[in-house]
Amino acid sequence: MIFQGKGSEHDFSIFKRSKMKLCKMLILLADSGFQGIEDLHPVCWIPKKKTKNKPLTPEQKRINKALSRIRIRIEHVNRRLKRFRIFSCRYRNKRKRHGLRVSLLCGIYNLEIS
């Protein structure tokens, strides 16, 4: 089932509304906009934020940097897939074929990088 939101709706709001069940062994990588996802999924890695009165420790900075090095690869894949416009623009065709078209585009991307 595809859950859609308006352009101004945050991804985390859509995720909460979907009530999607994730495998408990799955490690979820998220950005700092997903603060509070720990309540919904036990194993998640999100960067720590500093506050006005409590700066980050060197260990927390090191963890944030390591996490961003992993996530940047995912963001680059997202950027490359948005070239096909099916992900970045409104999908105007029948929903029934959306999954097939997404699978085909991901296959094209995998063929391109291999």
Task: Sketch the topology as an H/E string, one letter per element.
Answer: HEEHH
Radius of gyration equals: 17 Å
Please tell me the overall pLDDT.
Answer: 84
Q: What is the rounded distance between the termini?
A: 30 Å
> What proportion of the residues is helical, as a percent range?
40-55%
What's the story with the biggest beta sheet? 2 strands, parallel
Number of strands: 2
Structural class per helix/strand content? mainly alpha
Low-confidence stretches are none
Q: Name the overall outline.
A: globular
| Helical segment count | 3
Beta-strand content estimate: under 5%
Number of domains: 2
The spatial strand order of the largest sheet comes to: 1-2
How would you describe the overall organization of this protein?
The protein is mostly helical and 114 residues long. It has helices at residues 11-18, 58-81, 98-113, and strands at residues 28-29, 44-45. It folds into two domains: 1-46, no CATH class; 53-114, no CATH class. It has a two-stranded parallel ribbon with strand order 1-2. It is globular.
